[in-house]
Write a structure and sequence with these properties.
Number of domains: 1
Largest sheet: 9 strands, mixed
Number of strands: 9
CATH class: Alpha Beta
Distance between the termini: 33 Å
Number of helices: 5
Structural class: alpha/beta
Length: about 150
C-alpha cells in the first residue's frame, strides 16, 4: 500500500477519501490547494507527535469518539477508535481525510469512485453517514464548530 494514493473507504463517520497528500485531496475535491484538511491518527501517541493537547482538554480528547479537534497550532486531528477503520489506518499511522463528495454537493458513489485510486471495502460497505463533530480548542477555551 502506498500512502500517496487516494483511498475511498468507509471511515468511522462517513464515506471518505484518505491520502498522505493533502494537496492532492484538495485538488480532487475542487478546493483551494492550501485549505486546511483534517488528519486521522491511529492512536493518542501518534497525535502527540504532531501537536500538544492543552492540559485542560486531554481527558476530553482521549475519551471522545467521532470528534475532530482543531488544536492551538491550527491543525485538526481525529483519533479513530472504530476497529474496522482502524485496521486500515494502522498501516499508515496518519492519513489526511475528507468526505467522498465534491465540495458543496451530496455523496454520490459513482463520483466518489472516479475521484479515488483504490477502493477499500469492509463488511459495512460504503455509505454517507453523520460527519464528525468539530471543536476548536486553545489553552483555556473550547468552541463548537460543527
Amino acid at each position: 500500500m502506498d500512502a500517496k494514493f487516494i483511498y475511498l473507504t468507509q471511515s468511522d463517520t462517513t464515506a471518505g477519501l484518505l491520502s498522505a497528500d493533502p494537496f492532492r485531496l484538495n485538488q480532487i475535491k475542487g478546493r483551494q490547494p492550501y485549505k486546511p484538511i483534517l488528519a486521522e491518527v491511529d492512536c493518542y501517541e501518534t497525535l502527540k507527535k504532531f501537536t500538544r493537547v492543552p492540559v485542560l482538554f486531554r481527558n476530553r480528547v482521549r475519551r471522545s469518539q467521532k470528534t475532530t479537534f482543531i488544536y492551538p497550532n491550527h491543525q485538526s486531528f481525529r483519533v479513530v477508535k472504530d476497529e474496522s477503520h482502524l485496521m486500515f489506518l494502522r498501516k499508515f499511522s496518519i492519513m489526511y481525510s475528507s468526505s467522498a463528495n465534491k465540495t458543496g454537493s451530496v455523496f454520490d458513489i459513482q463520483e466518489a469512485i472516479k475521484m479515488c485510486d483504490i477502493i477499500v471495502i469492509d463488511s459495512r460497505g460504503i455509505f454517507a453517514g453523520i460527519p464528525s463533530k468539530i471543536f476548536k480548542i486553545n489553552k483555556i477555551k473550547i468552541k463548537k464548530i460543527r
